[in-house]
Structure formats: C-alpha cells, structure tokens
Design brief:
Radius of gyration of chain C: 13 Å
Order of helices and strands of chain C: EHEHEHEHEH
Largest sheet of chain A: 5 strands, mixed
Chains: A alpha+beta (153), B alpha+beta (147), C alpha/beta (126)
Shape of chain A: globular
Strand order of the largest sheet of chain A: 2-5-4-6-7
Oligomer: heterotrimer
Number of domains of chain A: 1
CATH architecture of chain A: 2-Layer Sandwich
Number of strands of chain C: 5
Order of helices and strands of chain A: EEEEEHHEHEEE
CATH architecture of chain C: 3-Layer(aba) Sandwich
Helix content of chain A: 10-25%
Number of strands of chain A: 9
Structural class of chain C: alpha/beta
Shape of chain C: globular
CATH topology of chain A: 60s Ribosomal Protein L30, Chain: A
CATH superfamily of chain C: Response regulator
CATH topology of chain C: Rossmann fold
Number of helices of chain A: 3
Largest sheet of chain C: 5 strands, parallel
Structural class of chain A: alpha+beta
Distance between the termini of chain A: 25 Å
Chain lengths: 153, 147, 126
C-alpha cells in the first residue's frame, strides 16, 4: 500500500506492507532514512535549502526546508527506536530546473544542504540520483528498505 | 578573449571546490563595495605552458566559516586553526587542481604550495577582481600572469 | 583485525576531514597516524606498522611523489597500499604509472573516501 509524501512533507512507518512514495521531485530533494534492523523507514520531500530564508514559514511547516525538515525526520526516526549509525540514506532530486531569474540554482543548493546536514550528523549517503534536469519519483519499501528512483521524463 | 575564459574557469573551479567540500554556493556579487575590509590573501602559483598565480581575497570570518563546514562543526567550535587560514589555503589548492585537471597537457604543469598573507586593502583595484557572494561573505578572485 | 592508518597531508584540516570520515565508517581502527609531509610520513613508517597510507602529493619539504617512490623502493614498505588523495592534476596519471593502489581527486566527498579506504583494505562494505 502506497503512502504519499507530499511536497514539504515527511512520513515515517514501521508497517512492512507500506511503501512511502513521493512524486515530481524537481529541484526539491527527497530523502529516505531506513534502519534495516528495526525495519523502520522515513521520507522527507523538502523545497528549499535553509530555514534562514523564511523563519516564519519554517515555523509553520518545518518540512519545507532541508535543515528543519531533516531534523524533524531524524527525530521521528530516533523516537521510533532507530539508531543513527544504522540508518541508510538515499537522496533523489535536486534537478537544475531554472527558476524565474534563471541564475539561482536551487536544485544544487538543495543537494549541498542535504550533504552538509548529513556530514554534520556523521552520516554517509548510501545511494543517490540527483542533478540533471528531469523530475523524479522516489519510493521506499518499508519491508526491506529498497529504494526506487524513477526519472519521469 | 583569453582572460575571460580563464576568469570563468577560475570561478567555476572555485564554485566546485567550495560546494563539494564545504557545501557553500557562490553567486556573482551584484554591487561592488567601495572599500575592502581587512582581508587575507591566499595565493597559489602554477607553472607550465601557461604560468599564472591564482589569488583569493576573503575575511578571516569566512575562513572560520569554511573550516566549520569542512569539519561538520559550528563556526568557532573548532580549535584546529582559530584563524581559518588553513581552510582557505586548502580551498585555493583544490581550485588550482581543478583548473589544471581538464587540460590535455596537464602533465607539464606544476603546482606550488599555497601561501597566505594579509592583504593591504589601501588602493584596492576592485576592477581587477571577480567579486562573489558566498553564503553572505564577499570573496574576490583573480588569475594573473607570473611576474 | 584492527587497522593502523597513516594520513600524510600538509593541511591539518584535510587530515581532520579524512580522520572524521574514517571514524564515521566504523572501521576497526587501532591508530590513525598523521604526518605533514613526505619526510615525516617515512619516519612514521619506519617506526610503526601501518596497513594503509593515505597520501597527498603537493606538500612542502618532501612531496608525496617522492615519498611514494621511496616507499616503492624499500623492501619493508613497498607492500603497504597507498591511496593518493590530492588536488594535483597529475595524481591519477602518477598513481597508474607507479602502480599504487588508488587515487582520489580533491575535492572529494566523504563517500568517496570511505569506498577508497574500504577497497584498499579489502574490507567488505556493510
């Protein structure tokens, strides 16, 4: 059964029947965390690299930003008993889709933001499909932690 | 003109070095400042078919910021190099390598060891430099012929 | 098995980054030795048993090219795997020419350091 993770959204699950899914990752980043021992997984779909861009929006919806969203997801996972050292990390998205100015490459910044947060937490990226200019869908199977990233164009 | 290509390559290489290692993005600086605050100058020389010096101006605060990012720490948390000079030296070193790596005759180039010194800001010739914004810090870079 | 590693790089920051990555990788490491140039690197190798050398090339005093050549010419040291981690544009060519274990270009990611180290030590990636 699919559980949809929307834009600026995060979900966690320990139900092996479930597959977490997010669609249309453009310049956004989809991040999955999975603890293979507990079979607990989570997914975040954020839009912007840092909450310092808009503190009031970050307050209203922390999942919109890399830093506040990642913190939210990680805390949820740890609260479910997951151990940071065991977490497998996958990233998808960060495509270079031009914004109105055509200069400010938000996809690259979003990807750099994820890498910075993971490095600060001492976590490696175990798999990724990022950059380019096509949108992507991302799936995480709670049963076995398998990740599927599909380019949709 | 040759100079423009080099300037572009320099900025791209610096961007890649900062982004990959320190998670910092750079953009062109819209408005040039009238005067430069006190700055460090990091430089590295390469010699070969084309011999140049690469120079980077940055504040000590930027050095500490880069160092914090490189090590995954908050700025000021680290006791490794309080001035952040080592971080800036490493960034210019990596930038220089990136500039030379794509050259087909890369084997005939030699890189020197990067140097750092304080920069005399009086009479700063701003037009000779590429000005960049790096996460809110101002950077200036240029590549110039060996003297 | 516990490993002894030697990091040779003139940048204290780079040594710290590599060290942090190795700790993150949860290898069973006994000692991580550090040296700031090729000469000090050889001195460590003369005193301690080392399973892997991670070496920069562009360094003051004795550079990594010279250090690696001396290691390869020394019966006691030539079996030790070396991974070059360098911004030198010729790093990959040099590594291939002298037949050393691996080469990682700067700027590197932590993931690239992890896989180069695991590969050189012959450790399975968990």
């Amino acid at each position: 059964m699919n559980v949809i993770v929307g834009i600026s959204d995060a979900k966690v699950s320990r139900d092996p029947q479930k597959i977490l899914v997010t669609y249309s990752l453009g310049s956004c980043i989809g991040m999955t965390l999975y603890d293979p021992m507990l079979k607990v997984g989570g997914m975040l779909h954020y839009q912007l690299p840092t909450s310092t861009l808009d503190a009031s929006k970050a307050q209203a919806n922390p999942m919109m930003f890399a830093d506040t969203g990642f913190q939210y997801l990680l805390q949820k996972m740890l609260a479910m008993g997951a151990k940071k050292k065991r977490l497998k990390v996958h990233l998808a998205g960060g495509a270079q889709i031009l914004d109105d100015s055509g200069v400010f490459d938000i996809g690259r910044r979003n990807y750099a933001a994820a890498r910075k947060l993971l490095w600060q937490q001492g976590m490696f990226i175990d798999g990724e499909d990022v950059g380019g200019n096509a949108p992507r869908n991302l799936n995480l199977s709670i049963a076995d932690g398998s990740v599927v990233i599909k380019t949709t164009r | 003109m040759c100079k423009d290509n080099n300037a572009q390559l320099l900025v791209q290489s610096l961007a890649e070095a900062l982004e990959t290692m320190a998670f910092i993005s750079i953009t062109p600086l819209e408005q040039a400042p009238a005067q430069l605050e006190s700055a460090l100058k990091a430089s590295i020389r390469f010699t070969g078919p084309m011999s140049r010096s690469i120079e980077l101006l940055a504040s000590e605060d930027f050095g500490r910021y880069v160092q914090g990012n490189l090590l995954g720490e908050s700025p000021g948390e680290s006791s490794l190099c309080p001035s952040g000079q080592d971080a800036i030296k490493e960034i210019i070193n990596v930038t220089c390598g990136l500039i030379l790596r794509d050259k087909s005759d890369r084997a005939s180039y030699t890189m020197a060891v990067p140097r750092i010194e304080s920069f005399d800001t009086s009479g700063w010739a701003v037009h000779q430099w590429e000005l960049l914004d790096a996460d809110g810090f101002m950077l200036a870079v240029r590549m110039r012929e060996e003297q | 098995m516990k490993f002894n590693l030697l990091i040779v790089d003139d940048s204290a920051i780079t040594r710290a980054i590599i060290k942090r990555t190795i700790k993150m990788a949860e290898l069973t490491v006994e000692n991580i030795y550090e040296a700031g140039n090729g000469q000090s690197g050889l001195e460590v190798l003369g005193q301690a048993s080392v399973d892997l050398v991670l070496a920069d090339l562009n360094m003051p005093e004795m550079d990594g090219f010279e250090m690696t050549r001396r290691m390869l010419a020394d019966e006691r040291l030539k079996h030790i795997p070396v991974v070059v981690i360098s911004a030198e544009p010729n790093a990959a060519d040099f590594a291939r020419d002298v037949g050393i274990h691996g080469c990682l270009s700067k700027p590197f990611t932590p993931e690239a350091v992890r896989s180069a180290v695991l590969q050189a030590l012959g450790v399975e990636h968990v």
